[in-house]
């Protein structure tokens, strides 16, 4: 069983990992397009979290994690509890490429018809929301900074997250 991480799963998978590889999912992009009303915001003051949003010609580079043998069922249950808390994500399988290999990964993608979907927000608006939102798992800005930092450590460039990280630091200085 393979799981595709593009956000917090990169730095906090929460399941036993047997192998991890840099992988690329074509036709998707990493985007702060989901309002967070649980983990990084509240219903009154939603934060933003990342999702895979379908986009023609786009690609998202992340990490494919192979779940340790024998831990598949418990991993799936834990991921469903974590990722499907509000039903804004859809559980699906996406094809990824890692080097010369191509295989399917379990992934959580945004439902563009869900009320929490907010694709197309300007980066400045995203920065203002992220700078001030706080939810059950802590400040929204920590989620952004952890993700951006781990992507950089892995050598994965994401210009939008890099810009947002700088801007949120300015707004919270």
From TrEMBL:
GO cellular component, one term: cytoplasm
GO BP term (any one): glutathione catabolic process
SUPFAM superfamilies xrefs: Gamma-glutamyl cyclotransferase-like
Keyword field: Lyase
GO terms assigned for molecular function: glutathione specific gamma-glutamylcyclotransferase activity
Statement: the UniProt record of this protein carries the keyword Lyase: yes
Gene3D superfamilies associated with the record: Gamma-glutamyl cyclotransferase-like
Entry EC no(s): 4.3.2.7
Segments passing through the bilayer: none
InterPro entries, sorted: ChaC (IPR006840), GGCT-like (IPR013024), GGCT-like_sf (IPR036568)
Identification of the protein by name: glutathione-specific gamma-glutamylcyclotransferase
Provenance organism: Gemmobacter caeni
């Amino acid at each position: 069983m393979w799981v595709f991480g593009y956000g917090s799963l990169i730095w906090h998978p929460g399941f036993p990992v047997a192998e991890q590889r840099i992988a690329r999912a074509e036709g998707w992009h990493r985007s702060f397009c989901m309002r967070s009303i649980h983990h990084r915001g509240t219903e009154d003051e939603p934060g933003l979290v990342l999702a895979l949003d379908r986009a023609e010609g786009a690609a998202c580079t992340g990490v494919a994690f192979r779940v340790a043998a024998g831990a598949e069922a418990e991993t799936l249950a834990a991921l469903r509890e974590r990722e499907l808390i509000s039903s804004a994500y859809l559980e699906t399988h996406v094809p990824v490429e890692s080097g010369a290999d191509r295989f399917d990964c379990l992934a959580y993608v945004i439902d563009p018809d869900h009320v929490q979907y907010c694709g197309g927000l300007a980066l400045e608006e995203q920065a203002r929301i992220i700078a001030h939102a706080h939810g059950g798992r802590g400040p929204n800005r920590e989620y952004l900074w952890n993700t951006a930092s781990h992507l950089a450590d892995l050598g994965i460039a994401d210009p939008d997250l890099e810009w947002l990280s700088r801007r949120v630091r300015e707004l919270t200085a």
